[in-house]
Amino acid sequence: MVDRTVRYFDKPGPQNTAETLRIVRECATSMGIRKVVIAAERGDSALALARAMKGTGVQVIAVTLHAGRWAKYSPPDLEKMEEIRSLGGVVVTATHVLIGNVETAVREKFGGLGPSELIGQTLYLLGQGVKVAVEVAVMAADAGHVSPNEDVIAVAGTARGVDTALLITPSYSTKFFDLRVREILAMPRG
């Protein structure tokens, strides 16, 4: 049996970033987690996490939006990505596994909803951060930076910043249903 405190934030958003990163650092070091995967749009939270993990032996894997989404959102800040690398982190830019991939193009042109988008929309029921944390864990696995044989902490948020942290046994996209969310470490209530 494991007794652990879960942090439930009253509201989603970037005001929870510092506390989420504190929880991630504490849990990763106390649980022996060697890798933390974090969603990185511009890279502010990912860089803050890489700085916080310096000297712990925990590797930060920052997963950016794929280049096709940069026009709608924003590209990663290249200087921040380079600093993450200089701190021993990895930066992954890959096609989104759930929403924002080829199924999105089919839906936008012909209508309907594909299976991966349906999975993504279902995960949104638990919050944007949960959906994105699952997605970046799979993207990092597909890129070869995490293994389905290791637990990782996956971190994401609602809009800017981070407010969600999950202990995940990742999977490759081709084995998506082998993924396990083992623990919720932090997430917003609403």
Key attributes of the depicted protein:
alpha/beta; Pyruvate Kinase, Chain: A, domain 1; 7 strands; 190 residues
Describe the model:
This protein has 190 residues and is of the alpha/beta class. It has a single domain, classed as Pyruvate kinase, C-terminal domain (Pyruvate Kinase, Chain: A, domain 1, 3-Layer(aba) Sandwich), CATH 3.40.1380. 35% of the residues lie in helices and 21% in strands. The protein is built from 6 helices and 7 strands; from the N terminus they run E-H-E-H-E-H-E-H-H-H-E-E-E. A 7-stranded mixed beta sheet has the order 1-7-6-5-2-3-4, sandwiched between helices. Helix 2 links the parallel strand 2 and strand 3. It is globular. The protein starts with 6 loop residues before the first strand and ends with a strand.
Overall CATH architecture: 3-Layer(aba) Sandwich
Share of helix among residues?
Answer: 25-40%
How many H/I helical runs? Answer: 6
What is the CATH homology-level superfamily? Pyruvate kinase, C-terminal domain
- Note the quaternary state here: single chain
The residue ranges in which pLDDT falls below 50 over 5 or more consecutive positions are none
How is the CATH topology named? Pyruvate Kinase, Chain: A, domain 1
